[in-house]
Amino acid sequence: MKEPYAVEMRGICKQFGSLIASDNVDFAVKAGEVHALLGENGAGKSTLMSMLSGVYRPTSGDILIRGRRVNIRSPKDALALGIGMVFQQFRLVHTLTAAENILLGEKTSVWRGKAWMRRKMEEIGAVAERFGLKVPVDRPVWQLSVGEQQRVEIVKVLYRGADIILLDEPTSVLTPGEAGQLFETLRQLRAAGKTVILTTHKLREVMEIADRISVMRKGQMLKTMNRLETNERELAQLMVGRAPSGALKPEARAPGKPLLEVEGLTVQAGRGHTAIRNLSLTVREGEIVGIAGVAGNGQSELAETLAGLRSWIGGTIRVCGREWKQASVRTAIESGVSHVPENRMKSGMAGSLNIVDNLLLKTYRQPERSRFGLLRGRKNRDWARTLVERFDVKAAGLDTPVRQLSGGNQQKLLFAREVDRDPKLMIAVHPTQGLDIGAAESVHRLLLGLRAAGRGVLLISEDLDEVMQLSDRILVMFGGAIVGEMSRENADRERIGLYMAGLHDVAEEEAS
Amino acid sequence: MNGKAAAAGMEAEAGGARRRPSFPRLRIEIDPVRTGSPWWVPIAAVAAALAVCAIFIAANGVDPLAVYKKMLTGAFGTRFGITETLVKTIPLLLCAIGVSIAYRISFWNIGAEGQFLAGAMAATAVTIYLPDLPAYAALPLMTALGIVAGGLWGLLTAVPRAYFQVNELISSLMLNYVAMLLLDYFVFGPWRDPGGLNFPGSPMFTAEQSLPAFGRTRLHFGLVFALAAVLLYAFTFRYTRWGYELRLIGSNPEAARSAGINLNRQLLFVMLASGGLAGLAGMAEVSGVAHRLMYGISPGYGYTAIIVAWIARLHPLGLVISAFLFGGLIVGGYSVQTLGLPSATSEMLQGAVLFFVIAGAALGRVRIRRVK
User: Fold this and answer.
1) B366: Cβ–Cβ under 8 A, 6 or more apart, which residues?
2) What is the CATH code of the structural domain delimited by B63-339?
3) Interface residues on A facing B, Cβ-Cβ cutoff 8 A
4) Taking CB atoms and an 8 Å cutoff, what residues of chain A touch B32?
5) In chain B, domain spans
6) DSSP assignments along B335-362, one per residue
7) Are A45 and A214 in contact (CB under 8 A)?
8) How far is CA B58 from each of CA B61, B69, B73, rounded to the nearest angstrom?
């Protein structure tokens, strides 16, 4: 008899309200393989994983684990079946040590004396060592790097006896170097007979690590294949549904006068932590300057400072030659700075308000939008209608609360607002995060349109492909400073990766 | 997103699936898209409150239907009842609009009672210290001082919150007691009517210091204040720039900040307006109804207004309706005393209504589904 699949899902459907997140999905994973679930953001990968790990339950369909039909009703059930999940956002208590986090779910012993702890530490150590995972078990989690935190999560799952390990977008937070280490770990897990399923939308990783690959698009399972029988090009086509259009290529263009001049900028974030130290950069007319870097190296603070939301303690900021005296959103808006924040629903939009109100957000003070303290209702609606059409926002009507729009349409709306102001300088932070290819492309087109119109763009993104594709110059941020700069012509993925990881010396060496 | 996660967390545990496969299970889900609850929830809440209170009334040996009927006729059945109800509606509506403005930006002002008293005291101060002013000077001055005093009393909550992150729930509640004690001081002390036989109250206002009444009823000019305030409230939030800014803050303070709105400053303005309306209610009450400042001038209007605002979901028309209903509840509460029930019966009803409205708002997003 054929050996049963470690995981088999048959005809899985999952609906959230009117949204179909999984549409009759069949999915099978062999025991002892590394299986990659490939798809764009929103393709339904995470939903599928969540159903395996007991976070959601399918609306219909069957799940079989090692050939037996099961009903996974909670993460506890999943664990009892030997399924452990490493979430994209780690589930760790920051003030506890790594070991304490790993033992959190432990319920076997009431008395936890020193001897018990010592024994447990040994057990954890043994598990970690067996799979070559270096984890500083006795340090509090907040002191650990992101890569180390992820390893704690993996050890936690292994320690609890999982042999089917799910990883949701495991590399999205890692530097290229840390990702390499993760893959090494995954190979060891495979060698030890564990089954690994990971989701990703990065083709390079899939080709590097997976044995078999399943591709999803818009909630549907398209195809499962062996890595050896496919290639990146085919996968990309499946994933996006058409051949990538060879990407938009910005036309060559000589940049003009400086629009944004930042010199020696130093910014403190909470608790005396210096988020940006002595940073200088210039953005000129008709130029896209890309900032690459792993999240948390000061990019968010830089964007907030330039949007007038955060005050600085040293250095100067000049926009169009005029120096800013203090942090002020009004000044930023009035000097023509547009800001597309990294988390649109958190700070860019008011979810319960309608489309018109959200479009008004930056311009409601202007005489065309309000006078004598009253909003110009009808005029604003007409204006909003033209914007919705021009930027191709799909919505039931102008009175729809923006929370009900899809991510792509929300982002289009946000861009409509920020671009319609005819900004001199656009600060776009992760502008295509969570968007499908089509929406991302229209965002890219908008940014290139600004550039062509002689505006300046500061593009802050974790998506290296995006930065490399659009930017005239690429700056790499690490530890609150700019550690590397390259023009488009001599941009080199490997070198950017080294800079991002804080290995400037190696990067400089390679360059010379 | 959170809704989905919460749904997972709330899944009803009914024993292991593999052990009891045939047991039909219900699943509680929170709709991730929907917020708020259907329009009929407040009505259902009132009905549920009536039903629950009926049990307690019956336990007192009285027929609940008779009680409700008595309350209904007492409050709305006669001309006198209706005008009395309207008299109670005025302070309730003004205070409820006041707290609604604050609630629109998620500032939990529960200090309308104190702000009401501050307004009442400030208006009375005019009658004490400038007793001979003619009506055209006295009434506007009393009105203005009432609003200002209520607004300043509101600022006592807003300033600490804006600049020192002091929780407004606690400070606004505590300031109610401060205002009550201050009232006691005045009516037992310096402002006590020398000819009042030790009654804890100020001297009666003169006709010059009293708001005009409609005909021979006790219904007074305050009704115009209250209706004007509702219109202004509706208009501000719908059509004005300031109202837009407040809606923005209420929906997402972070987004408001990135629109260049100074949140702290807006908080101060909002509490000036919120307290000012409660203060106006206090002024109207002393000048229009009691014609003096006295001990226990407010039977808890400032607190009942919170319930009124919640039932109305801060909606202008809803505020008018619910303030009127609660005015009726107070008046009806007086009339059930003849049936041998304490007038606290109506307070019990008020409490029960609030309870069910809040529960309804929370449960409005929940769906119960059968799982195969």
Assistant:
1) B28, B29, B30, B31
2) 1.10.3470
3) 16-17, 55-57, 70-71, 73-74, 77, 307-309, 328-330, 332-333, 339, 341, 346-353, 357, 360-362, 364-365, 370, 373-375, 377, 403-404
4) 16-17
5) 63-339
6) HGGGGT--THHHHHHHHHHHHHHHHHHH
7) no
8) 5, 14, 20
DSSP B154-177: HHHHHHHHHHH---HHHHHHHHHH
Domains, chain A, in order of start with CATH, read 7-240 (3.40.50.300), 258-336+423-511 (3.40.50.300), 354-419 (no CATH)
Return per-residue pLDDT of chain A as tens, 512 residues.
467 889 999 999 988 766 678 889 999 999 999 999 987 766 788 889 989 998 888 989 999 999 899 998 888 889 899 999 998 778 888 888 888 888 887 766 667 778 888 888 888 888 888 887 888 888 888 888 878 888 899 999 888 888 899 998 888 777 767 888 889 889 999 998 999 999 887 777 888 889 999 998 878 898 899 988 888 777 777 776 654 445 566 777 777 889 999 999 999 876 667 889 999 999 999 999 999 887 778 888 999 999 999 999 999 999 998 999 988 999 999 999 999 998 888 889 998 999 999 999 999 999 989 999 999 999 999 999 999 999 888 888 899 899 888 777 888 899 999 999 889 999 999 898 767 667 788 889 999 999 999 999 999 987 777 888 899 999 999 888 999 899 888 887 778 877 877 777 777 776 66
Structure tokens at A332: 């930023």
In chain A, which residues have their Cβ closer than 8 Å to the Cβ of B252?
A: 346-347, 349-352
B259 interfaces chain A, CB cutoff of 8 Å: yes
B241 has a chain A CB within 8 A of its CB: yes
Q: How long a stretch of residues is chain B?
A: 372
Per the rule left: phi > 0, alpha: psi between -120 and 50, beta: everything else, A416 is alpha
| Beta sheet of A60-65, edge-to-edge order | A19-29, A7-16, A60-65, A68-70
Whole-model pTM: value is 0.74
Angle between helices B112-129 and B263-284 (to 10 degrees): 60
Q: Do B35 and A352 touch (CB under 8 A)?
A: yes
Give the tokens for residue B258.
């990135």
The answer to whether A276 and B225 have CB atoms below 8 angstroms apart is no
B371 contacts on A by Cβ (under 8 Å):
57
CB distance B326 to B10 below 8 Å: no
Tell the burial category of A406 from Cβ atoms under 10 Å away from its Cβ (0-12, 13-18, 19+): middle
CB of B135 closer than 8 Å to CB of B281: no
So what's the ipTM on this one? 0.81
